[in-house]
Amino acid sequence: MTHSKPLVFLLLLGVFGLAAFPFAGSEFYTELAVRLMILGIFAMSLDLLIGYTGLVSFGHAAFFGLAGYVLAIITPESAPVSIWFALLACLAASALAALAIGWICVRTSGVYFIMITLAFAQMLYYFFNENTALGSSDGIFIYHKPTVNIGSFQLLDLDNAHTFYYFTLASLVLVYLLLSTFLKAPFGRVIRGIKANEARTMALGFNTRRYKLVSFIISGTLAGFAGFLEATFSGFVSPAHLGWHESGLILMTVILGGIGTLYGPVLGAFAMGLMEDSFQDMTDHWLLLMGVFVIAVVLFLPNGIAGLGARGAKLLSGVFRPSGGGTNPPAAKNKIPGEEP
Questions:
Q1: b/e for 152-176, b at 16 or more Cβ within 10 A?
Q2: The domain over range 5-315 is classified in CATH as 3.30.2010
Q3: For 162-172, how does the pLDDT look when each residue is reduced to its tens digit (9 = 90+)?
Q4: How many CB atoms lie within 10 A of CB 84?
Q5: Is residue 150 helix, strand or coil?
């Protein structure tokens, strides 16, 4: 996945803006930014499935909530747990769940895939909702954030608000770079081929079911990572984190942000969060305004909010492109017959 230089410049500008935000924003909006960055990681994990593999999941919140419950289970009330153990346990649980669920789901397609992912997510939802040992529908508290130590040396203090903010920002950037690397590799080319034409990709000798399963596992594991961050930050997890409402919200976030862009879902997460915060201050009927916003984006921005970023990058490239003096570029003179312009 390759971006133009102006688009890379805009993305870096956004990262630097987030890095500087805690020094200018209030405590409330700093915490809101943390939640939106976590939501952005969650949305990117789903975009790998929808935007690049062509698999629409309506049960992605299962891995998000499962990781939160694993963290709650392994964290005692009396003392914090090491992040090296906690993060490994949460990612392993999400990956194993994605393996088990994905092994069945990738054998279906279309609306059947959507419904079976929803069914599995609801099964997990009702398991935790009716489990009295884990708080049932009331959820469960996590009294301590994991420790980040190397031996006796404390590397990071996640109880510090600014430290956790930058830990989340670094996680957002690393997940983006990780997914970008996957998509530039041959693996990324194959899953894009599956989305474009699975039958032709299969005819080329690729085991498309296996590639879809690997994509599903990676996506579910990264959703679990987002769930780990959310549970660590809020200190609370409930069955609502696994519910279909949460899956629908993140699906809508990806669509609004821009499917198949990675950065688009992050923009969608911030747009949704900021619009919700603004509309709640304006009226009690803020959900109506949110609906109008969603409809407007779908109607007038077919490529999502990311389309605005692409247009901005195009305008930026036009500003900095050197003038050609009205002459044709050399490539046009030596154009190979049949070659794309």
A1: eeeebebeeeeebbebbbebbeebb
A2: no
A3: 999 999 999 99
A4: 13
A5: strand
CA angle, residues 30, 17, 28, in degrees to nearest 5: 10
Q: Indicate the angle between helix axes 110-129 and 244-257, nearest 10 degrees.
A: 140
Residue 237 in contact with residue 72, Cβ under 8 Å?
yes
**Phi, psi (rounded to 5 degrees) for 325:** 65, 20
How far is Cα of residue 81 from the mean position of the Cα atoms in its chain? 26
Q: Span 46-67, mean pLDDT?
A: 94
Residue 66's pLDDT is 96
Give CA–CA dist 173/181, Å, rounded: 12
Domain definitions of the chain by residue range: 5-315
**Could you tell me the pLDDT band of residue 337, with boundaries at 50, 70 and 90?**
very low
The predicted pLDDT at position 311 comes to 66
Question: Beta partners for 150?
Answer: 153
Contact 128, 65 (CB under 8 A): yes
DSSP secondary structure code for residue 323 in this structure: P
Mean pLDDT for the stretch of residues 62-84: 93
